[in-house]
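Page 42, continued from yesterday. The earlier attempt failed because a stray header line got pasted into the input along with the sequence. Redoing it now with the clean sequence only.
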Amino acid sequence: MTAGTEGIDPTVASSGGCDTGAHFTDGSAKTSDQAHVAAAVRATILELMKYGLLEEASKPNLYRNALLHRDEVDRMLGWLELALRIDDIRGLAFIVVAAAPDRDDDEWSHPLVRRQRLTLEQSLLVAILRQQFVAHEVEAGVGAGDARVALDDLIPHLQAYLGDLGSDAQERKRLLTLLEQLKGHGIVSDVDQQERVTIRPIIAHLANPENLTNLVQALREATGGGDIGPTSVEEADE
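This time it went through. Structure tokens are written below.
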């Protein structure tokens, strides 16, 4: 028998050694998992703060992070008086300003969010695009992607409300200018080679009934010769 080992149960000695190694391995794995979650949450928040939204179609990994770590992302955004909203039917995650009961909607301000004014023409095009988007979802199902519309189909709608400019080139220029402006709000894509634009799903949340009611009121004022007040949308600063 080897000196120094008398009276020691070899089974117990071996078991103790294995337990120490197991605790060490579990601790390392837990630390690694926490680091992975922290990195996923950080990447998701950075993308949300940059663009204000995440679409599953274009950012599937980050969108999945937003779903898996929704509570962590929402808690971090809460420190900034922001909140995460998920539209899992349309594959959309986006930021909104957290509701505050003591905040005056007409006077509130947020350092990371800007309130932008839409002109009557821009608001009208948003309403037209939302109508096209709803028609697409009625036909293809809510959450169906690729809601595309041809430029030639949009021009007559604008003419019906804004009048005929008397030139196809001018009509097209007016439409392209408005689409470029709305692209900055994340509502539409670039015009593709087939002369179509894709209506992005965030329009279902930006163009709400209240905004459309404001638009109708503005059109009535325009018909009566009154001053036209711009409608408003709110979006995360880029």
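Notes: DSSP finds eight helices and seven strands in the chain.
Reminder to self: strip header lines before submitting.
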